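REQUEST FORM: STRUCTURE PREDICTION
Request ID: SP-0412
Submitted by: Lab K.M.
Chain count: 1
Length (residues): 499
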Amino acid sequence: MNVIVIMIDSLNREYLSVYGMNDIQTPNFERLAKHCVTMDNHWTSSLPTMPCRHEVMAGRHEYLWRGWGSLEPYDVTLAQLCGQKNLVSMLITDTYHYFAEGSGNYHTDFSGWEFYRGHERDNWVTDPVETLPIYRQMLEEKGDRARAFMQNTYRFRDERHFFSPRLLSTAADWLDNNHAHKNFFLMVDSFDVHEPFYVPAPFDTMYDPEFQGEWPIWNNYGPASRYSPEVVRHIRAQYMGKITMFDKYLGAVLDRLDRFNLWNNSLVLVTSDHGHHLGEHGILGKNLPPYFDILTHIPLFVSFPGMKPTPGSRSKLLTSQIDVYPTVAQALGVQIPKDYTIHGFSMMPALKGQTAKIRDIAHTGYFGSSMVATDGRYTLHKYPNEKNQPLYTYGINLEQFHKRFKDPYVKAEAGRFLPYTDCIVFRVKEEQPPALGKTSTAVQGKKPDLLFDLKQGDDIDKNIHAQSPKVAARLTKLLIADLERIEAPAEQFERLGLK
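STATUS: Completed
RESULT:
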C-alpha cells in the first residue's frame, strides 16, 4: 500500500464535529470519517511536539530517556526503510522545529521534502514593519519572542497566504504529480492548529462575531483567569476558526484521494500530537500537569483497503501514538530490522479483525514530569517524588549540546546506557527538574496521584483514587509491566514510586 500520514499540531478531538462538537464547521473531517474508522481510544505518548515526531519517525518512546531532540545515529526511520526498498517518501511541513537548532535532522532520510517558513518563532523575514493592532497584545506578552511571527505574517492578506492553506494545497499538488508511483510514503506535517491563533476573514469572525477590542493572538500559558471571560471565549473562537480553515483545505487532499482512487490502495492516517487547553480546567495552553484528557486523548482516523471495521464506523481499540511506526511499516511492506527495538504494536492485525486488542495499557508524559497511564476507561496520574530524583537524560544528539546560548553539559558521562543500542551515549544527571517548555514544568513538591473514570465525563474535580484503590493498583501493575517490557531506565521506577 501507499501510506499518507497527516499530522496536525495541537488539535483537540473535542473540537471536531466527528467527536461531538455541534458548534463548529468541519465538513471535511466528517467526509474523512466516512472513509475511515474513527478511533475513540487513541492516546499520546511522548509530549510535546518533537518527542512525538521522534516516536512516529523512529518507533521508540522518547519521554522516558530524554526530552526534546533530533534523530540519533542509532534510529532507523520510516523514510530510511522506504529508501532501502526504493519507495518514494515525501515530507511536506511548516513545522519549523524539524530544522531548528537542537532538533533538526528529521527530513534528511526522505526522498524529497518541502518546508514552508514563518510559523511561530521561525527566524525568516527581516523586513521592518509597523506594529498593527492585531499584534500589539501578543508583543506585550511575548516580547521579542513574538517579533518574528509579526514580521513573517505582516504581508499575509488572504487565506491563501496562511499556513495550512499553503501546506495542504501543496500536498494536493504533490498527489497530482506523484499518485502513479508504485507505493509511496507521504507525510504532511502541519504546525497549525498550534498558536498563534491568527486567522484571516471569514474565519476570524466565524465563531465570535460580536467581539470588540484587542486580544492576544499568542498568549502565555497559564491560568485562564488572567483574561476576561470574553477574551478567553474569543481565543477559543480563533482556535476554532483555525480548525475550520484547515478543514477547508483538507478537502483538496480528500479530492485527490477520490480522484485517483487512493482509498483503494493506501493507508490513510490522520492524527494530532496532543491537544491544547482553551479555558478548560481554567487553563490556557499545555505543559502544566495534570495532563488532562483534553491534552492526551487525541483524534485518530484510519482507512485502508480490507479493514474489517466498516468505513464510517468507530472503534474503542486502545491505541497509542507509539503504535503509528509499526503500523505504517507494515502497510508499506518495509522490513524493520530484527535487531531494531520498537516499543509499539501495529494496529493492522486488530483492524483486520485478526485480534481483539493490541495493548492493555497506554502511557504518556513529558520527560521529567508526571506520567499518565490509561486502560481506556480510567486514567492514572503518577507524580514524581518530592525532589523529582533521580533523573537522567540519555543520548548523543542532546539538545543542550547544540544550544550555544547555554553552558554545555560538563558533567556528562559516556557509556552503553541504552537497552536498545550498543552505541556509546551520554548520560547527564538532571540536578534540577526540567524547566517549563519543551520538556515539562518543574514539579514542586510531592503531589498526590490521581485517578479519573472517563465514563464520568470531564476529568476535573472527580479524583477517585482514594475510593478505588484496586483500580489504581491494577493500572499501576499494568504500567510497571509495560515499562519493564521496554526496559525503561531504573530511575524512572524510583522517581515515580513504581517499585
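NOTES: Residues 229-259 form the longest helix (31 residues).
Reviewed by: T.R.
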